[in-house]
Amino acid sequence: MNTTVRTAARSSFEMLQEKLRHTVETGGPALVDPHMDGVERLDQKLRTLDSLCRETFQETLSDAYALIAGKLEAGEALTPGEHKAVELLFTGEATYYLKTENNFHDWIAELNRLLDEMAALEADGLDNLAELMHLQALCRDAMHVTPEVIYYLRERQRVEQFRASLEGDISREGGRLLARMIRDLMASPHR
């Protein structure tokens, strides 16, 4: 990595550090006594921070990915470190999400609890509006949990499938395709 890139990357990391500080400072008070406007401000800060992470990633590693894409286009084999770098580009955020997410088992337990309540309602038979509203509330509660479970499972599947696709040697045509995908991802504002 040349000095200009290092300087630019350092500057990006400094900006990222500043945005991180602002996000943490916003988040603490917003969650002490949660109200819509405070949590919405926190959400916006988190979205900005996420975007800045993507931009910093792309800026920091653009030269390295350009070299990797060149090797793939030329039909050259990648080193194990380059393989890991490609994996990081395509599934890095998913891999780190899977490592840090610790609510998956809680979500499954909550869905089981809600389904047990639904089963009890079904066993007793639905015959009044109170039970109908209870069932609807259980459905809505479950519908807030299922997207989290689905997202987790999709990310896990994406990581597993990508790793499987990179096992063994990459064909010349596969290398060209992968190089094009790398260049497209690095150029995209929405990696």
In short:
The chain has 191 residues and is mainly alpha-helical. 85% of the residues lie in helices and 0% in strands.
Folded structure, characterized:
The protein has six helices and no strands. By secondary structure, the chain is mainly α. The chain starts with a helix and ends with a helix. Helix 1 packs antiparallel against helix 2 (36-73). The chain has helices at residues 3-32, 36-73, 80-100, 104-124, 129-165, 172-187.
Task: Note the quaternary state here.
Answer: single chain
Low-confidence stretches: 1-5
Give the end-to-end Cα distance, rounded to a whole number of Å: 22 Å
Largest sheet: none
- What would you report as the Rg, rounded to the nearest angstrom? 23 Å
Helicity level: over 70%
Task: Write down the secondary-structure element order.
Answer: HHHHHH
Task: Please report the total strand number as a whole number.
Answer: 0
Structural class: mainly alpha
Hey, roughly how much beta strand do the residues contain? under 5%
User: Number of DSSP helices?
Assistant: 6
What is the mean predicted local confidence, pLDDT?
90
How would you describe the shape?
flat
Topology (SSEs and partners):
Layout: H1 3-32, H2 36-73, H3 80-100, H4 104-124, H5 129-165, H6 172-187
